[in-house]
Write a structure and sequence with these properties.
Elements lengths: L1 H15 L6 H4 L8 E8 L8 H11 L4 E4 L12 E8 H31 L6 E3 L9 H10 L12 E4 L1 H7 L5 H6 L7 E6 L2 H9 L4 E5 L3 H11 L4 E5 L7 H7 L3 E3 L2 H4 L6 E6 L6
Parallel strand pairs: 4-9, 5-6, 6-7, 7-8, 8-9
Antiparallel strand pairs: 1-3, 1-10, 2-3
Helix pairs in contact: 1-3, 3-4, 4-5, 9-10
Length: 283
């Protein structure tokens, strides 16, 4: 659940910002304690992700704070329109504003880039997934944002599945047929994925009974060839520098899973501002 996963990250971020020690807001005196409305306004069109985190942030600061969403998590925003409304004291609004925006802008950026990729492969069997190229300490939240954007989970940690890559091949040495012997020690119930770079590695993987092949930094033409050689029932995962603009070519070539590291390591933060409503009657 996102609230369980997000709580530790929220507390760490609030402590980092020393949210309870705002020397500027103290200068307002009693005025800072007045109940206030603050609106989260989209500066552009994007897929919103992170509203449950924003709610957690302000509840950590004040259990009576109330966040109301005008759109659902995962929906597109409309530029210059408020998509969430916060009711809390001015002191609480200002204490949590920056932390809330840091999460919301980052996660919405990830969700938006993911949605672009998902839309690009619409109508094909391909699914979009993440990699482990995530911000340290924020993996669970960033991968959550990928799911909000319509992507699916893949291997989220070293312990979750076997992913045999180029350096494993290098350490294994020759013959490549030794792959089958190595994989026999895989713990029961643990999925196995093998990265290949040539036809010989593909044959070794298939001979070992591998059903999930990773083709990294390969052309769509190479993907098409390997998908044909592998046949039905084999997942061909394409990765390596793929963007929403190039994803469809890989999907049409036969990749049924497309992993894009840029979803989490290069997604641009979206534009959002927090506007305090000075009209007391609005409360």
């Amino acid at each position: 659940m996102i609230d369980v996963l997000g709580l530790e990250e929220v507390r760490r971020a609030l402590a980092e910002d020393r949210a309870g020690e705002d020397v500027t807001t103290r200068l307002l005196g009693p005025a800072a304690d007045a109940r206030t409305i603050a609106r989260f306004v989209a500066e552009g069109r994007f897929v919103v992700a992170g509203l449950p985190i924003v709610e957690l942030i302000f509840h950590e600061l004040d259990s009576t704070a109330c966040l109301e969403s005008q759109i659902a998590e995962g929906a597109w925003t409309t530029p210059e329109t408020a998509f969430a409304t916060l009711r809390a004291s001015g002191r609480v609004v200002l204490a949590g504003e920056r932390v809330a925006l840091n999460f919301l802008q980052r996660l919405s950026g990830v969700a938006t880039l993911t949605r672009r990729a998902v839309d690009a492969v619409a109508g094909t069997p391909a699914r979009i997934t993440h990699t482990r190229k995530t911000t340290p300490g924020l993996r669970a939240l960033e991968q959550y944002a990928v799911r909000v954007g319509g992507g699916v989970d893949n291997r989220v940690s070293l312990a979750e599945a076997v992913l045999w890559k180029d350096n494993h091949w290098a350490l294994l040495g020759t013959p490549r047929s030794a792959l089958a012997d190595a994989l026999r020690s895989t713990p029961r119930g643990v999925a196995v994925m093998v990265e290949i770079e040539d036809d010989e590695q593909l044959d070794a993987a298939l001979a070992a009974g591998v059903t999930h092949i990773l083709a990294d930094n390969q052309s769509p033409e190479r993907i098409r060839s390997w998908a044909g050689r592998a046949g039905p029932g084999i997942t061909i995962q394409a990765s390596g520098g793929i963007t929403p603009e190039t994803a469809r070519a890989y999907a049409e070539a036969g990749a049924t899973l497309i992993s894009i590291g840029a979803l989490t390591h290069s997604a641009p933060a979206v534009g959002i501002n927090v506007a305090v409503d000075t009209r007391r009657h609005a409360l």
